[in-house]
Amino acid sequence: MPTYCNRNAATSTLNTKGNNKTMNNMIKTPITTQKIQENLIKLTTTDFINNIEVFNSINSTSQYLIEKKKQQLQQMQVAIAERQTHGNGTHGKRWSSPPNTGIWLSFTWSLPINTQWSLASIAIGYATLQTLQQFCDSDQLKLKWPNDIVYNKQKLAGILIDSHTDDKYAHLVIGIGINIYPYKHNIDSQHAALAELSDQNLCRNKIIAQILFNCYNAIIQLQLDQTATIISNWQAHDALQDCCVTLKTGQKITSGKYLGINNNGEMRILINNILTEIRQASIISY
């Protein structure tokens, strides 16, 4: 049976004065393993989670799971925090994750090495967007390559995947960060929060359960080699479609016309009339 433990989950209330959305969606309740489990039972009878741990504060949920090194090949090990002190973003950037303002979670999964596991970021990105669409009033959520969910070019959520492989499996630690309530970022100001887009009574426990369920379904798609569906879902919500983009690869800055992604999840960009496929880059502007 799955085991669940709660590590001093905190309770907090946000001052909603001046917010143009209803106060109900700004009322915070603590994240608890019990409530996540109760919401998961409403979604599925499939036992795909081995363990859920909720921390009041931790350096990084992903780092915790990496250091734990306990591999459950076909079940999730899940770590969630009310606060991360050293949350990580892409390209070594810090992910701001102050107390009780969002969902900061990571989970593990192992995919057979012969699957398209390199598409995990694309598949999980769409699964996260799909979840957020269920809890907000906007159809303007988009996927920004390689791993962001944006609203009007403002970052709402991000995905970061750490991986290592052996002869049989790609072992993944998948981190997801979502801004639920507005707060002052110490990185930059181009951020959105789900509560600003929703009139619903947002319950983080319910959102987390839905994310885990949708991510599990995305992983099953990867295992079944449903590449065409994964790519099609992404392209339908591509924030960069028909854009000219400026990106940084290493120390080099280039610009070109974005042409979507290939079947490996790589960016296709036309630079000086030459088609280039890029696996890793930082988007500066679009």
Nutshell version of this structure?
The chain has 286 residues and is an alpha+beta fold. Helices cover 22% and strands 31% of the residues. The chain is built from five helices and 13 strands.
Secondary structure blueprint with pairings:
Blueprint: E1 3-7, H1 33-43, E2 49-55, H2 61-68, E3 76-81, E4 102-112, H3 120-133, E5 141-144, E6 148-151, E7 154-165, E8 169-179, H4 204-223, H5 227-235, E9 244-249, E10 252-261, E11 267-271, E12 274-278, E13 282-285
Parallel strand pairs: 1-2, 2-3
Antiparallel strand pairs: 3-4, 4-8, 5-6, 6-7, 7-8, 9-10, 9-13, 10-11, 11-12
Helix pairs in contact: 1-4, 3-4, 3-5
Give a verbal description of the structure.
The chain is α+β, with helices and mostly antiparallel strands. Helices cover 22% and strands 31% of the residues. The chain has five helices and 13 strands. The relative contact order is 0.15.
